[in-house]
Inverse folding.
């Protein structure tokens, strides 16, 4: 017997709360692929100089860079919004203005963290 | 008057049959990941270079190896908990759902074990 599912998404007004919720799940799924990349990087490092050189070549390719920058943003957002969720779980931050402020903080903070990390990387090795 | 059966009251479980174990595990692993991921990111950024010799030496320090293995283990667990919920939410036919959850579980065990084995190979060799 089919179980009840949630009301149709069409009846909800699009707003920051649900957008950020979807983004949390999307960045989580993206980070799952990042975990596979981390695993490949570690295994290639254990495999020796040749396999590690190949892994660096793959990761430093144009597609590799797009993925790495994407994962940096996904990680930053998932971290900040995850902490936001932990505050909610502890019972804090449910007010309308608090929800909006913490939501925007997570989004802007993720952009700032991503820019900061990549500024550091490019500053060290232009 | 409670509408719950005596057995349901004793077990303390809802209609999902597994209580809040999944929810709790997701939160506990999230809290553990905050320091672990930040430590990993900052350590990598602080390395003078990501070439083979530098990263091998860094990963062969006992503390680095231990924390990296913890990171990979908790990351794999947290990511598995998250992506399995995504499959449960969006895959509706029972057969495909069970098959993809099984495949996902095997994939995560493989990724986690391969990563930890790679760190052990590096840490125990030197």
């Amino acid at each position: 017997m089919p179980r009840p599912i949630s009301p149709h998404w069409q009846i909800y007004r699009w707003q920051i709360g649900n957008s950020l919720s979807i983004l949390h799940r999307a960045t989580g799924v993206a980070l799952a692929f990042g975990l596979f990349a981390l695993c490949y990087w570690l295994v290639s490092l254990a495999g020796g100089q040749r396999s590690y050189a190949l892994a660096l070549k793959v990761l430093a390719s144009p597609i590799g860079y797009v993925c790495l920058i994407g994962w940096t943003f996904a990680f930053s957002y998932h971290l900040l919004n995850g902490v936001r969720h932990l505050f909610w779980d502890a019972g804090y931050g449910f007010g309308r203005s608090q929800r909006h402020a913490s939501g925007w903080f997570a989004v802007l903070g993720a952009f700032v963290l991503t820019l900061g990390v990549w500024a550091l990387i490019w500053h060290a090795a232009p | 008057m409670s509408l719950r059966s005596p057995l349901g009251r004793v077990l303390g479980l809802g209609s999902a049959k597994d209580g809040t174990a999944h929810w709790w595990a997701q939160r506990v692993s999230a809290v553990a990941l905050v320091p672990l991921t930040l430590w990993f990111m900052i350590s990598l950024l602080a390395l003078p270079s990501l070439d083979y010799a530098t990263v091998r030496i860094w990963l062969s320090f006992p503390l680095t190896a231990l924390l990296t293995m913890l990171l990979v283990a908790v990351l794999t667990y947290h990511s598995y908990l998250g992506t399995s919920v995504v499959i449960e939410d969006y895959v509706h036919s029972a057969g495909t759902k069970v098959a993809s959850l099984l495949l996902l579980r095997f994939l995560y065990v493989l990724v986690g074990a391969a990563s930890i084995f790679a760190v052990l190979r590096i840490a125990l060799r030197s």
User: Anything to note?
Assistant: The mean pLDDT of chain B is 92. Chain B has one domain: 21-125.
